[in-house]
From TrEMBL:
<dbReference type="InterPro" id="IPR032710">
    <property type="entry name" value="NTF2-like_dom_sf"/>
</dbReference>
<protein>
    <recommendedName>
        <fullName>DUF4440 domain-containing protein</fullName>
    </recommendedName>
</protein>
<dbReference type="InterPro" id="IPR027843">
    <property type="entry name" value="DUF4440"/>
</dbReference>
<feature type="domain" description="DUF4440">
    <location>
        <begin position="14"/>
        <end position="120"/>
    </location>
</feature>
<dbReference type="Pfam" id="PF14534">
    <property type="entry name" value="DUF4440"/>
</dbReference>
Amino acid sequence: MPTMHDRIRADILHKTRSLWTALTSANPPPPIKKLSNPDVVLLFPKMEALTLEDEEAFDEGLKPPFHRFDGYQLDDVRTIVIDLMAGTVTYKVRAVRGNQEYRATGSTTWSQAADGEWRLVVHQETLI
């Protein structure tokens, strides 16, 4: 039987993959907002921080072709349980669009909301 920490690790890894599916979709803002805590902060290379405090800037910052990739792969994935209500996933990401490649390290932190759902708190990427 999986331990509580094993279930948390599996849940936040699944949510991180859902986030990347949303990030690379044709219309990222709606699914990302659905995954997010109201105080979410997204930190991408060469961009100002995105928050839901300014939804117009949030939507503008995430609109295609931003992160519109043909495919992505997460490697060296580590899940860290902070406590029973929070955790972080760190990884390397490799994504491609045509013959262009995007390589970065990433860190995505989740907290469990009152409804029991995991919500995105902070997402950060650093080019490598």
